[in-house]
Structures are given as structure tokens and as C-alpha cells.
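Lab notebook, bench 4. Still working through the backlog of constructs that have no structural model yet. Next entry is a single chain of 244 residues. Request: give me the C-alpha cells for it.
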Amino acid sequence: MASFKSVRDLLLIGFDEGLLDEEEFLLLYQQYTSLNAEYPYTSYPAFDLELKDEVECKTEFRVEKNDIPGLADTLRIPEIVKCYQGTICGREEALCILLKRFAYFCRYSDLIPTFGRPVPELAMINNKMISLIFDIHGHRLTEWNHQILHPEALETYATAVSNKGAALTNCFGFVDGTVRQICRPGKNQRVVYNGHKRVHALKFQSVALPNGIIANLYGPVGKFLVNQGIKFIFFQQVLCQCLY
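Model written out:
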């Protein structure tokens, strides 16, 4: 499929050769003008992990260079990541796009010098990776994770909390929440408007273990789910005070 830029170049050639009159040219040229800002992504080389310095990888991706292939294996990322419109990307590059995006708050345009791809491709690859990882590993946060919440582990967590001087001897986790601001939606704005923060936002609740791992995640929650959210928070508070 030809890009908008290729079509515009053909339109210019057609207009120059007299195949299109001025009105047809202006109409078609405007029709094939992208609404997104155009960045010179073609002036940057394609991403190659082998050419990256170890310090550069740790700084940009928060992961050691030698650990990136192993992380891709652990997350079970396929060799080729394919987006819905046909864009393809290697597993290591796709993982690095995700890591770079989440290592520090940045715009997709800030990723262009590193990966040499246009903003729409970077956005689609990043979203594809989020969906892929959540589909495979989402149950570790949204359901009871027996690998880290088995009875022996719960006893270890409770002991660690108690040894720090906690009043309870059977508390293995801590409930906390955060409000994440979002763009104002075009419809149903009241559903996600947070009167306390005075912004449009979604709420998330989580149970954190003494070792720093999130044991359970609940959200996003809008105002229309506030009652369910309160009930779930109460359940988590009871859960944190009981050992099974």
C-alpha cells in the first residue's frame, strides 16, 4: 500500500505533465495530506540492537543489553510482531520500543531517532506489545497468582512485615491506589471526571508485597464503578489481614 507521501509525489508529477488540472490537483493533494505532523524518520538508520552500546541500552531501556533477548523469551514474544494493518517488527526491536516508551515519559516522536520509524508505526507496535503481553501474562495481576501467593510465601511476607514492627502479625501486603489523568473524552465525560483532583482520570488499586512486587491490580475504575471499587478495596483490606 502506497504512503500518502508517495501519492502526493505522483500527484505532483501528474500535475506537472498536465494530466491533472489545478482543481483536481488541489482536491486530491488535500485528500492525501496526513493529519499527523511529518517527521524526517527516513534520515535515521533502522534499529539494530547489536550496534547499541551497553551503557546506551541501560540508559534508554532500563535493561542490560545482554538481558533483552532473555526478557523477550521470558515474555514469550514471537519472532515477528505484526500489527493489524500489516506493519511488521522484530521481537527485540518491538520490545525495545515498549521499554523506551515506558522507561521515561516521552512522545512517540522522541522515539524516531532511535528506531527510524514514523510515529503511527511506533504507536501501533507499542500498543500491539501491550496487548500481547497482557493477553499472555495479565492473569498474574488480575487473578490470584499462586506462584507468589502460595501459603509459604504469604507466611514469609507476613513475617517480614511483622519484623519491621507492624501491629499485625498476619498482614502480607499493602493496598494503595493512584489516580491517572487522561485526556477529556468526547462522550460520557462525567463518567471519568474526578471531582477531587478536578481532572478526567481513571483509578487503579493494587496490593503491593514487601518484596516490591504487585500481587494484584484492579482497574481502571471510573466514577460509574465507584461502589464496586469500594467493595473491592474492602475485600483487599480484609485479604491483607488474613492468611489462607
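Notes after review: The beta strands are 80-82, 88-90, 174-181, 193-194, 199-208, 214-221. DSSP finds ten helices and six strands in the chain. Flag for follow-up if needed.
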